[in-house]
Amino acid sequence: MENTLGLEIIEVVEQAAIASARWMGKGEKNIADQVAVEAMRERMNKIYMRGRIVIGEGERDEAPMLYIGEEVGICTREDAKAYCNPDELIEIDIAVDPCEGTNLVAYGQNGSMAVLAIAEKGGLFAAPDFYMRKLAAPAAAKGKVDIRKSATENLKIIAECLQRTVEELVVVVMDRPRHKDLIKEIREAGARVRLISDGDVSAALCCAFSGTNIHALMGIGAAPEGVISAAAMRCLGGHFQGQLIYDPEVVQTGLIGESREGNLARLKEMGITDPDKIYDAHELASGQTVLFAACGITPGTLMEGVRFFHGGARTQSLVISSQSKTARFVDTIHMWEETQRLQLK
Question: Residue 342 above 70 pLDDT?
Answer without folding.
Answer: no
